[in-house]
Amino acid sequence: MFDFNKKNDWKDVGDGIFRKILSYNSKMMMVRVRFAKGAIGTVHEHIHTQSTFVISGKFEFNIGNEKKVIEAGDTCLMPSNVLHGCKCLEEGELLDVFTPLREDFL
């Protein structure tokens, strides 16, 4: 029911991107993702619906055929099985929520 930040470690997923898994159950997962400036979230798709909140920084997101720059306080939604990715324009951090949980992250 509770998840404390200090007990979770950052995982280096390569190329200037770090991930920290937060609370989750079988239906939902929350993940913090830290990006160095210039880091690329490679274009991909998955069965999960994903909502992203920009905690800090600035990112150029591609979702389907749309490309937008979003920054701290903005959100975006990636529907299931839609190609998406991002480029970090200013060092920053995202909060991703997936439904159902990303078993591949565990």
Automatic annotation (TrEMBL):
Domain of life where this protein originates: Bacteria
Looking at the record, the residues that make up the Cupin type-2 domain are 32-97
CDD domains (UniProt xref): cupin_KdgF (cd02238)
Q: What is this protein called?
A: Cupin domain-containing protein
